[in-house]
User: What shape does this take?
Amino acid sequence: MIKSTASNFLGLPDKYSTYEDSRVAVLPVPYEGTVSYGKGTAKGPHAIIQASAQVELFDDELGFEPCEVGVTTLGPLGVGCLSPQNMASMVSGSVEKIVGDKKLPIILGGEHSITPPVVEVIKKFHQDITVVQFDAH
Assistant: This one.
């Protein structure tokens, strides 16, 4: 079983953030192994999670709180000092577990190199996928 962290995305109460009952899983990947300029990407996942607690949960267009489907936040992957290949392997295994459990993965990085292993795993489960990637610059 994958455990959720105490500091969770959107600051959701346990009612909406247990792994077993959530349809969405947020995976922090604080990797900074191939950055060539401007270090700090490893701090990104934590900063995003902290800021997410300020988000308004009610969606005016939908007329409800989408987070009620359940959004669990997993513990950050220990990828800090790994080679790109070992990081990719760890990310692949974690994403495979999430998708295999029929949850929508949301991956918080870290640097760009975390994206290819995520996409490769999801393509094994879903032929037609869409990737939404936000970049700090």
Q: What stands out?
A: The two ends are 36 Å apart (CA to CA). The mean pLDDT is 91.
